[in-house]
Amino acid sequence: METRMDAAAYETVGDEDEYERRLREGSAPNLLPMHLQLIELQAQEIARCMDARARVSHDLLFGGFTALRLQGVPLPRTLPKYGETVSGDDLCVLATRRNTRTRLRGARYYHMNIPLQIVEPMPGVRCVSVVCAWFMLARFLSLEELVTLGDCLLMRNVVHKRVTIEDFDVFVTRMERLGKLHALGRKRAPRGVKKARRAIALLCANMESPQEARLSLELRKRGLPEPVANLSIMLDDGTVVRGDLVFVEAGVICEYDGAHHLNQLERDRIRRAKIECSGWRYVQVTRVDMATPDARAWMARRVAYALEERTGVRYMTDDVIPLEAIADQALRAPLPGWDCVA
Fold first, then answer.
1. What is the pLDDT of residues 43-77, one digit of tens each?
2. For residue range 169-195, what is the model confidence (pLDDT) as tens digits?
3. Checking DSSP bridges between strand 107-110 and strand 91-94, what pairing results, if any?
4. What percentage of the chain's residues is helix, strand, coil (to nearest 5)?
């Protein structure tokens, strides 16, 4: 069975990633591994925040995207209607009280009437924790981007202090109770709390990049079974590799190759050959495959065909299942062990 692809499906539209922006500007793509890129961006943001603090007579508390940059977190894509309001270059500063602002060039002030978790990534530079910043941004992000951001915070190789899914659950439960108890003068729970609860149901603790997380969510939206993220696999020659997204029972590995793979093409070819010689079906995905809705549809068909080839099960990938429906189904599922209770 041969699938023919329409080249028009790969015309890039919509969100422009860092790779595309550099090409458009005539700059060389940044081929450093993501971890090193984040350390570089963190250092730049710390310098900006220290400069801002030196221009005022009091301490500043940073939140939102600024808090994420200060802690070396990959940034999500905001909903279009919020645009530069949230994700612009201005520093996000939290005001201590409503209607309390300080004139500070290059900064936007916000007030959040919730208990804040505060950390200090550098002496003299204070910001909210990554989980607190994640929750603050819930109302400005789609559910997919909120899950993607959460998966990035859960990655193993992170710059910030590591967190767990339980940390997200504890924080959101606390926010839910604010409305019920009318704490801090609130009449209802903070905005975004329902979306945050849904996002927790979809979080995965083993992702290694934002695009891996987006790819996994895209496959789930297309009705494919949930893969295991970054599973260690023993090959026939005794070497151990980690597959990005692994369908264990089908013997299929789906991997996302970002821009930094351009520096290791030969090594990647050898690795793929070993995986396939060990009996695994390999599906490669690149940024082009995720660029547009049509491209994502073709990509999902490729993965579905690989699964069908191995299992005989046909998956219809034309319809997209809303993530909200997938999350709600996960939230309704009984907790492990409940069926054992007398």
1. 999 999 999 999 887 889 999 999 999 999 988 87
2. 999 999 998 877 765 566 678 889 999
3. parallel
4. 45, 15, 40
- Could you tell me the two tokens for 297? 């549809």
CB 71 within 8 A of CB 159: yes
Q: State pLDDT tens for residues 6-17.
A: 434 333 334 445
Residue with tokens 């990509």: 299
Task: Mention every residue, 6+ apart, whose C-beta is less than 8 A from residue 44.
Answer: 69
Return the amino acid letter for 168. F
* 18 φ/ψ sector (left φ>0, alpha ψ -120 to 50, else beta): alpha
Place of tokens 């924790």: 129
Distances (CA, A) of 152 to 74, 203, 220: 7, 10, 18
DSSP states of 32-52:
S-HHHHHHHHHHHHHHHHHHH
* Exposure b/e, 160-178, CB count within 10 A at least 16 = b: beebeeebbbebbeebbeb
What order of strands is seen across the sheet that includes strand 91-94?
A: 107-110, 91-94, 61-62, 125-128, 118-122
Distance CA 165, CA 330 (A): 15
Sign of CA dihedral 143, 178, 163, 35: positive
Spatial CB neighbours of 293, under 8 Å, sequence gap ≥ 6: none
Q: Are 192 and 198 in contact (CB under 8 A)?
A: no
Interval 131-162: pLDDT, tens: 999 999 999 999 999 999 999 999 988 889 89
The residue type at 290: M
pLDDT for position 5: 39
Query: Rounded CA gap, 289 and 237, in Å?
Result: 31
- How distant, in Å, are the alpha carbons of 74, 171, 250 from that of 69? 8, 21, 39
Looking at the whole model, is its pTM more than 0.70? Answer: yes
CA distances from 239 to 233, 234, 243, 261 (A): 8, 6, 13, 20
- Residue 59 has a CB neighbour count (10 Å cut-off) of 10
Residues whose CB falls within 8 Å of the CB of residue 112, separated by 6 or more in sequence, listed in order: 63, 94, 136, 190
